[in-house]
Structures are given as structure tokens and as C-alpha cells.
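Reminder to self: keep the SMILES exactly as supplied, no canonicalising. Ligand is fe (ii) ion.
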Amino acid sequence: MHDIVRPTSHFRDVLRQHRVAEQFLEQGYATFPSGLPQYFETMAKGVARLLQDPLEMGRWIVDDPLERDTICDARDTDIGILVKSLDKIEPRHKAEGRLTNDRKQSIHFNPRLVPYLEEQRADLETYSPMLYGFNIVHNTCEVLSLAFAEELDTTLPGFNFLERLRAGWFWNKTRLVSYHDHGKFHRDRNGFTFAIQSNAPGLWLQDRSGRFIRGNETDKASIMVFSSKKFWMITERQFPATLHGVVEEPGRFRQSLVFFTHLGVSKAEWDSNEEIYLNDPRYRVNQEEILSHIAELERQQLAA
Ligand SMILES: [Fe+2]
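C-alpha cells returned for the bound complex:
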């Protein structure tokens, strides 16, 4: 009988070899090799085409009334093309009745999107290479996230990361975001994030010592994992969520592929921690200050 190569053992080996869990806890982020970035181009091309096709886009805007009361925030459940709140849409687009923000558009994939698209009679033939990419990336990231949670449980016992990951499993999602604008500095709301690939550099992260470093999101060989707010909550606020944002040439069409896990956190747990988070001056984000600090770092690097 042949041995079946199990992805979990493969990923466990990769994670151990690159000390991913240790680095993640020490720095707030870690980088490691994976085969995932190879799917990015096909997916990005499909998404760019979809965003040019308003009739088809309408079929991908999901009105998804999923158990919104049982989790911390409705934003965590969105799948399909995200409909921005109306105040974020440019007035001239609002006047045309558009539902999405032209400066930043996200598609969230979870396998439950596919039957929805079938129901809507979406053009699955045209977009099948893109959906195929989403499927593979999503499934692989899910397996990878299991291996990572297991590693975290070994490295930092007592917080049941694997159990939490399974509790939030339903809300795992893969995002392909397209934008023409800087991405504001922020901390993600989920558990931990895999930054898989982008078509242009620009990501900056703050490590646990407070230093700003460049992301390596255009590296086609590796991906990055960083820490988000639910991880901070679960670890009793020992491990802050990683501050990050995008600084890039204005007007550039940037696309990025990301996977989010939602570690299971109850509404009460979220609310009490979010209050602490919002009231703690250490977590305030001053966009201008960060942007000028990064501009200075870039000047120094150029001069070096
Ligand atoms: Fe983010």
C-alpha cells in the first residue's frame, strides 16, 4: 500500500522547520514557504474582469442573513462582493445607484458562495478559473490553519487555539481585495491572517518591538501570517494584534490575496475586550504620524 501524504503533516513540518509559531509569538508575524501564491494571477485577473461587469457583479452581491446574532459582528459573515456602507461610496457613484466603493472592492470567498452563485445564475463558466483558484487557496489555507493552531497549542499551551479555530470555522474566508488607494493602518478583527500574495509592494507591519517593517507580499515563494484582535483577546491580551497598512504609489491598481480565520470568541468576550482596546491609548492609530515615519524610513533606506 502507498502512503498517503497528508497535508497536515506536510504543513506541520514546514511550520516547524521555519519556527513559524515561535516567530509569530515573538514578532507578531512570521514568513514561510507555501505553494499558494501561484494561484494569485488567475484569481486577480478574474476579479479584475468581474469588477468591469456591473450586471454580473450584481449576482455576486450576497444578501446573506446568516446567524448574525450569534457572532460578534455582521461584518464577519460577509461573502461574495462586499457592499460598502453607503456613506463610503463616492457621491457621484451613489447618484448612479452603485452599491460598491470604487476605490476598494473586496470579494470574500467561502465554499457556501458557490451554491448561492448557482441560484443567482451567475456566469460560472467565465469565472470558473478564478473560482477554482479561490477553492484551492481556501481549502489549503484551512488545512494550513489547522496545522498552525496545533503548533500554537504546543508552543503556547493553555489557550486551546485549535478548539477556537474549529469554533469559528464557519466564518473562515479568502479575500481578494482590489484598490486604488492607500490602505489605512489598522489591526484585523479576526484571529490570524495569512497574507498570501499581492501584485505590488506596499504592505508595512509593526513588529512587537514597535518597529515598522516592509511586508514581503510580492514574494512568490512565501506567505506571511500575522496576529489579529481575536488572538489578542484569547491570549488574555498578552499578544497584541499586528498593526499594518498599505503605503504605495497613488493611483496604482493594487490587488491582494488574504485568508482570514475567525477564532471562536463569544459576543460577551468580544464586547468586553473591544472596550478595553478602544480605551487603551497604546492601541490608538495616528495615520499621519505613521505615514510620515514610514516616509522617513524610506528616505533613510534610499540614502543607505
Ligand atoms: Fe488588514
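Points to follow up:
The chain has a mean pLDDT of 87.
Residues 248 and 272 are 35 Å apart (CA to CA).
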